[in-house]
Amino acid sequence: MANADNDSTARFPDAELKARAAWHYYVEGLTQEKISELLGIGRIKVHRILAAAREEGVVQFRISDTVVDCVVLEQKLKERFGLGQAIVVPAAADSRNSPMMIGHAAAAYIGDNVNAGDVIALGWGRTLKFAINQLPHRQISRTTVVSMLGGLTHAQPLNPTESAWDFAEKIGAECYLLPVPVYADKPEQRDAFMSQRSVQDVVFRARRANIALLSVGSFSLDSPIANYGFIKPSELEELKALGAVGDILCHFVDATGKTIDHDVNHRVCAFPMDELADIPNTILVSGGREKVAVMNAMLARTKVSVLITDEEAAKGLLGL
Q1: Per-domain residue ranges for the chain?
Q2: pTM for this structure?
Q3: Assigned CATH for 68-317
Q4: Between β-strands 246-248 and 251-253, what pairing exists: parallel, antiparallel or unpaired?
Q5: Which CATH number fits domain 1-65: 1.20.1250.20, 1.10.940.10, 2.60.120.40, 1.10.10.10?
Q6: Residue numbers of the chain with a pLDDT score lower than 70
Q7: Are 146 and 209 in contact (CB under 8 A)?
């Protein structure tokens, strides 16, 4: 462990050290002792850095100084994928905190970039839920939030319907929900659900969106889709054998972004995947090494305007 008064072990320049310490403390919620171990500096120096960060205005509603390495990654991502903007947050010391940290950055971006008259088509996921939870209440006139997915019939903490409603409540928007389950039991039931007038009205409103706010799901047993029992373990194995790397709007896709030809994908009640490219501004909010493959698929499948992610995913996307 670093000596409390010995700064020679610090691995980062002063400005970057200050930004990283502030991020880990105020956003990730780590203790000063843990930050000391993580950054290789003494606990007394951690305390001094955090005090200086407050005095100098580094810590405001959000952390204003951006970590240098993240800035480099942001520029490389913009160049590689033709993005209008990339936002990369420091990697979490505990990977379980990654959705919360990315969500914090997404909330700041959304708060600054949703304007009067916007129509926002919304996906779902843990990271988006964190982003919505951290949005400040701010009434934005003439805004509309439209869910791009059906809902859960069994109440769960993570639900497309709840996410859309919470988002709309935060910004004072009208809210439209797809009044059908995420997955129908059979493809023909899915077709019947999606042909209903009320459902077509919501899809029509989503088509008029000028912003799509999306996340992607990793292909793992820890994903919400697997945990909530939408799909049988045998179906997950079949999808994996067919090359699935994860899901976009609950559609399982391969590494190129192509939708897998499987019964599961024929039962999804959601906004049509092929029409994502028609929404002018698509914001992808996802991160973690486990999502690199499906994020690559999303970037290949449709035009993403803004990517909000973390260092781990950014490096994976860039092959670093």
Answers
A1: 1-65, 68-317
A2: 0.81
A3: 3.40.50.1360
A4: antiparallel
A5: 1.10.10.10
A6: 1-11, 57-66, 153-158, 220-224, 226-229
A7: yes
